[in-house]
Amino acid sequence: MNLSFFDQFSSPYLLGIPLILPSLLLPALLLPSPGHRWVNNRLSTVQLWFIRLITKQLMTPLNKAGHKWALLLTSLILMLLFINLLGLLPYTFTPTTQLSMNMALALPLWLATLLTGLRNQPSASLGHLLPEGTPTPLIPALIMIETTSLLIRPLALGVRLTANLTAGHLLIQLISTATIALLPIMPSISALTALILFLLTILEVAVAMIQAYVFVLLLSLYLQENI
Q: 169 lies in a domain?
């Protein structure tokens, strides 16, 4: 059976049931359960320190009204981070390589930030569509350009996350396939490609973490514009 390089991005099925939902719930099972004591063990301490660091980085640019989003944004970045990292393991499925899932995350959250701004400060939110001091003949064109740039924000969020993770997975698969194919023919070249594969894997771990952070950071910046 010949498999395409893109078969790894198709959602797996078991008895006709898609397994994308269990793959989304799996990262939550890896987190240590909270106990009744302040400090349970070293893993819980590291977890709390990491969550506090992420929350501080995301909430620093926002005012007090934006701190209501702290739980949502922190939970989102932790979910994306665990899903991206677990997707680098062999024989695993990465849900964040699906554009439909990323758009399902980006579109409602972007719309929530937009509606928050239109409800709390409609004049300031609509004022972003027209920069101050714009010449009168350019007003219709600039409004159309700013409106288009506003509407493509969720698409840019989803496509950025999907494209970066998909490209990384494809590169890893291509180089690993070349490593195995060259092993009986040219062992020295195969060892070199294996070294490249190791370095690429380290790079993809960094990309997985950075893309999760960038996704949530851009959402927090969109929120900052509307509060």
A: yes
Does 9 reside within a domain?
Answer: no
In a domain, 7, yes or no: no
Q: What residue numbers bound the domain in which 30 lies?
A: 18-226
Digit-by-digit pLDDT tens for the chain (227 residues) are 345 666 666 777 777 777 777 777 777 676 666 666 666 677 777 878 888 888 888 888 888 878 888 888 988 998 899 889 988 888 778 888 888 889 999 999 999 998 988 888 878 777 777 777 778 787 888 888 888 888 899 999 999 999 999 998 889 988 988 898 888 888 899 899 999 999 999 999 999 999 999 999 999 988 888 87
Q: What is the 3-state secondary structure (H, E, C) of the chain?
A: CCCCHHHHHCCCEECCEECHHHHHHHHHHHCCCCCCCCCCCHHHHHHHHHHHHHHHHHHCCCCHHHHHHHHHHHHHHHHHHHHHHHCCCCCCCCHHHCHHHHHHHHHHHHHHHHHHHHHHCHHHHHHCCCCCCCCHHHHHHHHHHHHHHHHCHHHHHHHHHHHHHHHHHHHHHHHHHHHHHHCCCCHHHHHHHHHHHHHHHHHHHHHHHHHHHHHHHHHHHHHHHCC
Is 108 among the domain residues?
A: yes
